[in-house]
Structure formats: structure tokens, C-alpha cells
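Q: Got a minute? One more chain.
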Amino acid sequence: MAYLWIKAFHVIAVISWMAGMLYLPRLFVYHSETQPHSIQSDTFKIMERRLLKAIMTPAMIVTWILGLVLIWQGGWMTSGWLHAKLLFVLLLSGAHGFLAKTVKDFAADRNVRPARFYRMINEVPTVLMIVIVLLVILKPF
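A: Always. Here it is, folded:
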């Protein structure tokens, strides 16, 4: 029964993390279209920082911790699908790191990328999420 509770909270953490991973680049799209030091820019800075610090990073940490517990309790360590999933979760964590660095760049008014870049980068977490979900559900190898 504990395994199911851990799995449920793992899924809740993943949903929370992904919500932020999908929303933050969208904020960057709008933020990149504002003038530095404007009221709008300052508002986006607050929104981006709070999203990252209060939701995304804690959710990512909980996702990782509970995911590792599930791996251990479920005896999945030798499963090929899990190794592939972990690779994509590492890539997703790297994307999280990139977004965190971008929050710092915007906070310091150092953004040099156009809105179009952030529109494209917004698709990266989506693609990674799709691959991860397919691996977990289908367990193809």
C-alpha cells in the first residue's frame, strides 16, 4: 500500500513540475517583448522567480526522491525502459537548469534571446514528457 501512496505523490510532483516547465518558457516569451526596467518586466521577474523557487524546483526534487524510492521498492533497477526513462528525466532536469539560468538572466536584465527562441524552447519539455510517459506506460524493453 505504501508503494501506491508514493507513486501517487510522485505523479502529483511530476504534474506540478511539468506545469512549471510548460508555463515558464511562455512567461519568457512575454517577458522578452517588454522593455527592461519597466513595470511589466518587473512583474514578470517576480512571477518567474516565484514559479521557479516555490513550485518547479521543489516539485523536481520531490519527483526525483520519490522516483528513486519507487525504483528501489519496485525492483526496477535492471529494466531497460527505466534506464531510457532516466536518461530523458536527466535531459528534463537539464532543461530545468537552463530555465533557472534564464530566470537569473532576465532578473539581471541580461536576456539576449528573442520571443521566437522561447516559443521553440517551450516544446522541449513537452517532447521529453511524451517520451517519458510512453516509456513508463508501455515499458517497451
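A: The CA atoms of residues 18 and 129 lie 8 Å apart.
Q: Perfect, thanks.
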